[in-house]
Design goal:
Elements (H helix, E strand, L loop, with lengths): L4 H13 L2 H5 L3 E5 L4 E6 L13 H17 L7 E10 L8 E11 L4 E9 L5 E11 L8
Antiparallel strand pairs: 1-2, 2-4, 3-6, 4-5, 5-6
C-alpha cells in the first residue's frame, strides 16, 4: 500500500470531484500518506442539530470519509468501504469550529479487510469523536453488457 503523497493528493482530488456529499459538507482533504490521513470540516449552521451543536451524523461522516480516503487514495482501482464501525461521541463540536479528522491504520488483514482508528478533534486539540472502522475491499465492478 505504498503510494507517494503527491499521488495520494491527486487521487484524493479525483475522488472528491465525484463525491457530492463530501463537497456539500465542505470536507477538505489534507495530508494523506501511508501512515496518516487528515481531513477537515468547519461546522456550519446548517450542520447543527436542535441543540445548536454539530449533528453527530456529520461528525461520523467526517471520520468515515477520512478512513475511506486513507484507503481509496492508495491506488486507482481501490474499492474500499466501511463494513462496520463504532463511534464514541466525547464532546460537542460548536458552530464555526474547524474539526480535524486524523485516521491511522490499526490492523491489516491482507487484501480484504483492515481496521482504522479515526479521531476528530476541535481547534483546542480536544477529541470530539473516536471511530474504529473495519474497512472491506469490494470486488471490482463488472462492466455493463
Amino acid at each position: 500500500m505504498t503510494a507517494s503523497p503527491h499521488y495520494r493528493a491527486a487521487r484524493a482530488q479525483e475522488i472528491l470531484a465525484d463525491d457530492p456529499a463530501v463537497i456539500a459538507n465542505d470536507i477538505v482533504p489534507g495530508e494523506i500518506t501511508d501512515d496518516i490521513a487528515v481531513m477537515t470540516m468547519v461546522v456550519r449552521a446548517d450542520q447543527a442539530n436542535s441543540h445548536g451543536i454539530c449533528h453527530g451524523g456529520l461528525l461520523l461522516m467526517l471520520a468515515d470519509t477520512t478512513a475511506a480516503y486513507a484507503l481509496n487514495t492508495a491506488e486507482t482501482a481501490s474499492l474500499w468501504v466501511t463494513s462496520t464501525c463504532t463511534a464514541q461521541f466525547l464532546r460537542p463540536a460548536r458552530l464555526g469550529e474547524e474539526l480535524r479528522a486524523t485516521c491511522r491504520l490499526v490492523w491489516d488483514g491482507g487484501g480484504r479487510s483492515r481496521l482504522y482508528d479515526t479521531a476528530v478533534t476541535n481547534p483546542a486539540g480536544e477529541v470530539v469523536l473516536l471511530m474504529r472502522a473495519q474497512m472491506t475491499r469490494l470486488a471490482a465492478a463488472a462492466e455493463p453488457a
